Q: What sequence folds into this?
């Protein structure tokens, strides 16, 4: 199964990298950790929204989120995308849980309906609680988040998010995949392996669904 870090594929060059990675990886399923920004994809892809998305598309996907059934046709430039916003999905035998959005302390206790414009990018306490309720008794194989937990990334300070810490502690995924920071990093939190993913213009990953081993590859440059 293919795994991708941030794509920012509204940019045409980044979109070429994203599609080149799909082609090079040659798999029939994919997972993505946010900042996708392009929603017409070659194969079914389960993703969490990042802080850079077309939030009209994301709102539509939130409203029609299901248990992972494939979207069969292009509808306004949307195909083969499945948003995970506190829901579980069964993907190639794996139980996958996703938390969409990024953390803003001033918006965390808001109702989602009160978030407008660019503020729709944030997750709320209710979103985190929904993800915990979905995953607590589900034996989660893979957790997708855009934000990182504490202890994974350092800029001379730790940018980790308390709600993501809480989610990992509650659902204890075997593997947590993280975006947002555009760098590869790994740690272990409790029994969970946590991996921050490099952006798609640098790398793509192959996930062994039997062992959860993650192999990293250089994304080909289609301009060469």
A:
């Amino acid at each position: 199964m293919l795994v991708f870090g941030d794509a920012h594929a509204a940019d045409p060059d980044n979109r070429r990298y994203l599609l080149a990675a799909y082609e090079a990886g040659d798999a029939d399923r994919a997972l993505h950790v946010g900042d996708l920004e392009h929603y017409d994809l070659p194969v079914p892809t389960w993703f969490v929204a990042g802080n850079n998305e077309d939030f009209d598309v994301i709102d539509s996907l939130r409203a029609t989120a299901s248990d992972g059934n494939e979207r069969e046709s292009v509808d306004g430039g949307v195909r083969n995308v499945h948003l995970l916003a506190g829901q579980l999905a069964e993907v190639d035998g794996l139980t996958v849980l996703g938390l969409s959005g990024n953390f803003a302390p001033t918006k965390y206790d808001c109702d989602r309906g009160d978030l407008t414009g660019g503020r729709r990018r944030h997750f709320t306490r209710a979103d985190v609680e929904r993800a915990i309720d979905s995953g607590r008794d589900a034996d989660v194989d893979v957790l997708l988040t855009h934000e990182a937990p504490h202890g994974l990334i350092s800029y001379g300070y730790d940018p980790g998010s308390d709600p993501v810490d809480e989610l990992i502690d509650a659902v204890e995924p075997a593997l947590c995949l993280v975006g947002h920071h555009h760098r590869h990093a790994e740690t272990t939190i409790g029994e969970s392996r946590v991996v921050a993913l490099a952006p798609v213009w640098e790398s793509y990953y192959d996930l062994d669904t039997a062992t959860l081993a993650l192999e990293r590859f250089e994304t080909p440059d289609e301009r060469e």
